[in-house]
């Protein structure tokens, strides 16, 4: 049996190293794995089924804010995700909660806060700072619409948001251009969008800076 693992996904090497060091000292029974982008995050999750928790930064390459959280929750609904971010605005914390995170840790928090949060989530609880932000019905509706997408459709949507053409998306995903067209048609229907531009705007709204 492989050793249970925790995955730290953050593109900042120094901060990731510091977090990994804390986790290794406080949770010695867990292997600690690392990822620095959306693609390495997906690869790690595919290669290591023993991962029991993901500690996730919101601003890695290949992500659009909360898109990585939604992608992990869609592909691995039983896997708890704790968001770690330097943006600890109450609205960001509330959005993380609504998009399916099990906890939120500010990058300015002390090591003990990180330990307590991870312990709580590993025990099946949640770990969020006390916040004063209204629940957003728009975010709830957006999360529900995005949850209808298959993992391949979600990945296609992110490429659409990056402005890639169908031919380019096909090359990136290793599928035919016809398959991409089928995905895009399904995406627009499920998201109730009339154009690729409208779908891209939805993805942009997942950025943590979108506090309006």
Automatic annotation (TrEMBL):
The modification 4-aspartylphosphate is found at residue 57. InterPro entries: CheY-like_superfamily, EvgA-like, NreC/VraR/RcsB-like_REC, Sig_transdc_resp-reg_C-effctor, Sig_transdc_resp-reg_receiver, Tscrpt_reg_LuxR_C, WH-like_DNA-bd_sf. It holds the Pfam family GerE. Residues 5-122 form the Response regulatory domain. Keywords: DNA-binding, Phosphoprotein. Residues 142-207 form the HTH luxR-type domain. CDD domains: LuxR_C_like, REC_NarL-like. GO terms for molecular function: DNA binding. PANTHER family: HTH-TYPE TRANSCRIPTIONAL REGULATOR YHJB-RELATED (PTHR45566:SF1). This is DNA-binding NarL/FixJ family response regulator. It comes from Comamonas odontotermitis.
